[in-house]
């Protein structure tokens, strides 16, 4: 069935088909289907990943500059 969420950065709505409730995705990261920004599900809320990490670790750049990623299929 899926869940519809709103990107916290661009405001566009998109679906997350594999889950039926936002709580099922807790802690997961995803890319906005519209703007491509990296997001995270935290406490049932869609947040900007880099800003979220920066809040707990100021050494992490809030804009995500000079960071990388590992993709696991």
Write up this protein.
This protein has one domain. Strand 1 and strand 2 form a beta hairpin. The two termini are 22 Å apart. With 73 residues, it is an alpha+beta fold. The chain is 11% helix and 27% strand. The mean pLDDT is 94. The chain is globular and about 40 Å long. The strands form 2 sheets. It has a 3-stranded antiparallel sheet. The chain has a two-stranded antiparallel ribbon with strand order 1-2.
Task: State the end-to-end distance.
Answer: 22 Å
Strand content: 25-35%
Global morphology: globular
Number of strands: 5
Number of domains: 1
Number of H/I helices: 1
- In the predicted model, the low-confidence regions spanning at least 5 consecutive residues are none
Radius of gyration: 12 Å
Secondary-structure-derived class: alpha+beta
Strand order in space, largest sheet? 3-4-5
The main pleated sheet reads as:
3 strands, antiparallel
**H/E element string?**
EEEEEH
The helical percent reads 10-25%
Mean pLDDT figure: 94
Keywords:
73 residues; alpha+beta; two-stranded antiparallel sheet; 1 helix
How would the blueprint of this fold be written?
Elements: E1 3-6, E2 13-16, E3 29-31, E4 38-42, E5 45-48, H1 49-56
Antiparallel strand pairs: 1-2, 3-4, 4-5
């Amino acid at each position: 069935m899926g869940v519809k969420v709103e990107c916290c950065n661009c405001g566009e709505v998109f679906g997350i088909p594999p889950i039926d409730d936002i709580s099922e995705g807790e802690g997961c990261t995803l890319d906005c289907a519209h703007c491509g920004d990296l997001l995270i599900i935290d406490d049932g809320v869609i947040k900007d990943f880099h800003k979220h990490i920066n809040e707990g670790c100021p050494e992490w750049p809030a804009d995500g500059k000079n960071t990388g990623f590992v993709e696991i299929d």
